[in-house]
Design a protein that fits this description.
Number of helices: 4
Strand order of the largest sheet: 1-2-3-4
Structural class: alpha+beta
Largest sheet: 4 strands, mixed
C-alpha cells in the first residue's frame, strides 16, 4: 500500500530497499491508483524500474472520469476521458485575456456535459445544464490532459490572474526538501 495523500511509506517505498518486493511489483500487469498524483521522485522511480502504473482521476459525484495510458513512458502521464463519457474542457480565462501571453489562458476546466451518462443530478448542475467540476487541466496533446489542481486552490490576484500554488509547492519541495516535513 502507498498513501499518496500523506506520502506514507508502503510497498512502493519499501521496494527501494527490498529487491524481492521490487521484483514482485515489476511482475504485476499494472498498479492502479487514484487520488493525488505520485510525487516526482516516486514517479521517476516507478518508470526507471519498470513498474507499470495507471492513474485514475475521479470524483465523488461522478466516480472514474479520466485514466492515464499504461504504455506512457515519460513523466506525468496525461489523462484521457473514459470511453462512453461526454466531457468538455472549457477555458477559464475570458476571451479578452486570450490575446495576451497569459498562462491562465491555457487552463481548462473539466466539465461533465449533460449528455454524459455519468452527469450528476440536475440539482448539482450549473445554469448551462452541465456539471462544472472545478478541476483544472492543461491539454498536453490533443485529447490528453495534465491536472493542474482545483480552481479554488489557486490564488486569484486583483487583476484576475492566478498564482499556481502547485508549481510553487513543487519548486519548494525540489529546492528545499531538507526543510520540509509532511
Amino acid at each position: 500500500t502507498y498513501d499518496v495523500g500523506k506520502r506514507r511509506p508502503g510497498s512502493l517505498q519499501n521496494s527501494r530497499r527490498d529487491p524481492k518486493l521490487l521484483a514482485m511489483l515489476q511482475g504485476l500487469d499494472q498498479i492502479f491508483y487514484s487520488g493525488l498524483m505520485l510525487g516526482q521522485e516516486d514517479e521517476e522511480w516507478v518508470h526507471r524500474h519498470g513498474i507499470k502504473v495507471m492513474n485514475c482521476f475521479g470524483s465523488t459525484e461522478c466516480t472514474i472520469m479520466l485514466l492515464s495510458d499504461l504504455e506512457w513512458k515519460g513523466m506525468r502521464a496525461p489523462l484521457r476521458p473514459v470511453s462512453g463519457t461526454s466531457y468538455g474542457f472549457f477555458p477559464i480565462a475570458p476571451e479578452s485575456e486570450k490575446t495576451h501571453e497569459n498562462a491562465n489562458a491555457r487552463l481548462l476546466e473539466l466539465v461533465i456535459l449533460s449528455s454524459s451518462p455519468d452527469c450528476p443530478d440536475r440539482s448539482l448542475r450549473a445554469a448551462d445544464g452541465h456539471y462544472h467540476t472545478g478541476d483544472l487541466f492543461i491539454e498536453s496533446s490533443p485529447g490528453r490532459y495534465v491536472p493542474r489542481g482545483r480552481d479554488d486552490d489557486w490564488i486569484k490576484s486583483e487583476n484576475s490572474l492566478r498564482c499556481d500554488t502547485k508549481a510553487i509547492e513543487d519548486n519548494v519541495r525540489q529546492t528545499c526538501a531538507d526543510l520540509i516535513e509532511e
